[in-house]
Amino acid sequence: MTTLRLVLGDQLSHGLATLRDIDPGDVVLMAEVLDECTYVPHHVFKITLVLSAMRHFAAELRERGAAVEYVTLDDPANTHSLRGEVMRAAATHEVDRVVVTEPGEYRLLADMRGWHLLTNREVDIRVDTRFLCGIAQFRDWAAGRRGLRMEFFYRDMRRNHEILLDDGGPVGGQWNYDAENRKKLPAGVVAPQAPQFPPDAVTQAVMVMVADRFGEHIGDVASFALPVTAEQAQHTLEVFLATRLPEFGDWQDAMQIGAPTLFHSLISTSLNIGLLEPLDICRRAEDMFRRGLAPINAVEGFIRQILGWREYMRGIYWLRMPEYAQLNALDAHRKLPKFYWTGQTRMRCMADAIGNTIEYAYAHHIQRLMITGNFALLAGLDPAEVDAWYLAVYADAYEWVEMPNVRGMALFADGGIVGSKPYAASGAYISKMSNYCGSCSYQVKDATGPNACPFNALYWDFIARHTERFKGNNRMAMPLATLGKMAPARVAALRARAGAFLTAMDQGEPV
Ligand code: FAD
Ligand code: DLZ
Ligand code: SF4
User: Fold this and answer.
1) What is the SS3 assignment for 29?
2) Ligand nearest to the CA of 227
3) Of ligand 1's atoms, which has the minimum distance to the CA of residue 252?
4) Cα 347 to ligand 3 centre (Å)
5) How far apart are the CA of 510 and the centre of ligand 3, in A?
6) Ligand 3 atom having least distance to the Cα of 430
7) What is the distance between the terminal CA atoms of the chain, rounded to a whole angstrom?
8) Is the CB of 431 under 6 A from ligand 3?
9) Cβ(289)–Cβ(296) under 8 Å?
10) What is the distance, to the nearest Å, from the Cα of residue 376 to the centroid of all Cα atoms in its chain?
11) Nearest CA to ligand 3 atom 1
12) Which one, of 252, 236, 270, 239, lies nearest residue 10 by Cα?
């Protein structure tokens, strides 16, 4: 009995459920297909990362004795869909059954559920055990709760996995040190250099192919230097733990021109394709705290992102799909402006966040949330367009994590499933957390007039637009009360400035 075992481009873990009970006669299928490279116009770094990491992983599997059928993008027989490649390999190798692990995107799971009919063989879709909370487990956790909140999920995860606990309670007596993660970076604090990985021959071959086939996609593949093997990913983690984790907590929400990565870990690209394991990362970070090498606000803040937010977002995605992809609670329909693809805008903060995105296929969390996400929220950009942008431009983007972050956390398009209030902020917040405003052609202290910071008028226009909707939300009481106290002429001037800005933006004028 021959089993065909399909390993996807974001399933590059030797402990993958697909590979659990492998027999010497089984065939492991890995396929580079156009469908996966083009369903959104992925940044060239993302395609290079996935294809190079796939090729390296296939070589490791072969070294371990597995029979790997590896289909390259330029194979003339390639059908260019995962379904087509499974059907082709199933016929060629006379397989009796197909084994896969549940994928990270709903569209692919829906497709896989029909593969048994197409191949006329049993298709065993296994639970992805690389996550710390299974889809069914999250469903059980969520069942019967009136409102879902990450904080309570996170505490349960800490207890379940015995992370940062003393005598069953949180280390230091507090579950969450979020309040100590919000400092502005003072002048003179410089983040240590992040590791870079010069491409080897395998990666170089992929880079040539990607430049040739996907030249019109965003980014320049020539500067690709992301980790593509488990060994390189581990090195990235080690460098982070030793040099940046101790200060991660203090500067987690800071933004600075010329410092695209600050004290962030840069592990998401590796973690999301299976080159690192989440529990191992959490334990390593905890060990840094236990040995007195990193403070609690840094270690707890970092672990919260992985054990808390990452697992929670995945849980929400699978709990709510496919409806989640249609949610547009704030009725937002504006088209995504072109400058999201070029970075060409007078808004210094947007130009920096988008510029980093184009150059590195990376922007750190607070840039994604409080700059590009916040702008999209305030300007009322269509969630479907914003979603497609985030999925395309980041090297770590897969729908299970991207969509709840975009529709839920950034856009409030889910009406409050992920967050209890929108993360809406004016220029004052950006000015407090960054050094952007000093070199911006807009004036952050002004809210009206042609040179006033657009975030200010857009913020008040957003609150005014949604006053009725937010009335019942206690957490929005303050901005609503402030708006209520404003003179009608002031409100009208702010809304006129917002309207003029949006009209100019929609018409493609430089803004
Ligand atoms: P660090 O800041 O060092 O954090 C450590 C790890 O924690 C990350 O690697 C990641 O695995 C996890 N993490 C942190 N925040 C989150 C979060 N909100 N949700 C899930 N995991 C989190 N992350 C992705 O992996 N893929 C995405 O497509 C993605 N899209 C996002 C879109 C928006 C609008 C927002 C606000 C956030 C998004 N995030 C996404 C979460 C976060 O921004 C990235 O995980 C992080 O910037 C990756 O960089 P890092 O590894 O240096 O992270
Ligand atoms: C992202 C990606 C890309 C660019 N290419 C491939 C590919 O050629 N073959 C493959 O198996 N996987 C690829 N992937 C990852 C898939 O898109 C990913 O597995 C699904 O989106 C589910 O998360
Ligand atoms: Fe951004 Fe406004 Fe500051 Fe310019 S002034 S950088 S637009 S927040």
Assistant:
1) strand
2) 1
3) 2
4) 6
5) 15
6) 8
7) 64
8) yes
9) yes
10) 16
11) 349
12) 270
Domains in the chain (CATH in brackets) are: 3-126 (3.40.50.620), 135-320 (1.25.40.80), 339-506 (1.10.579.10)
Q: What is the DSSP string of 3-27?
A: EEEE--TT---TT-GGGTT--TT-E
Q: Say how many C-beta atoms besides its own lie within 10 A of residue 83's C-beta.
A: 17
Q: Which atom of ligand 3 is nearest to the CA of 443?
A: 5
Q: 103 CB less than 6 Å from ligand 2? A: yes
Give the residue, by CA position, lying nearest to ligand 3 atom 5: 444
Question: Structure tokens of 58?
Answer: 């296939």
Q: Report the nearest atom of ligand 3 relative to the CA of 347.
A: 7
Amino acid in position 290: R
Verify whether ligand 3 is closer than 6 Å to residue 457 (CB atom): no
Mutate to test the pocket of ligand 1, among 389, 405, 412, 418 (most ligand atoms within 8 A of CB): 405
Q: Which ligand is nearest to the CA of 431?
A: 3
Q: Is 133 in the pocket of ligand 3 (CB under 6 A)?
A: no
Local confidence pLDDT in tens for the 511 residues of the chain:
799 999 999 999 999 999 999 999 999 999 999 999 999 999 999 999 999 999 999 999 999 999 999 999 999 999 999 999 999 999 999 899 999 999 999 999 999 999 999 999 999 999 999 999 999 999 999 998 988 999 999 999 999 999 999 998 999 999 998 877 677 788 888 888 889 999 999 999 999 999 999 999 999 999 999 999 999 999 999 999 999 999 998 888 899 999 999 999 999 999 999 999 999 999 999 999 999 999 999 999 999 999 999 999 999 999 999 999 999 999 999 999 999 999 999 999 999 999 999 999 999 999 999 999 999 999 999 999 999 999 999 999 999 999 999 999 999 999 999 999 999 999 999 999 999 999 999 999 999 999 999 999 999 999 999 999 999 899 999 999 999 999 999 999 999 999 999 999 999 999 9
User: C-alpha dihedral over 31, 33, 39, 41, to 10 degrees?
Assistant: 110
Residue 299 and residue 245: Cα distance in Å, rounded?
Answer: 7
Q: Whose CA is closest to 466, among 408, 410, 418, 421?
A: 421
| Residue 255, ligand 3, Cβ within 6 A | no
- Respond yes or no on whether the N-terminal peptide bond of residue 322 is cis (omega within 30° of 0): yes
Q: Which atom of ligand 1 is found nearest the CA of 406?
A: 34
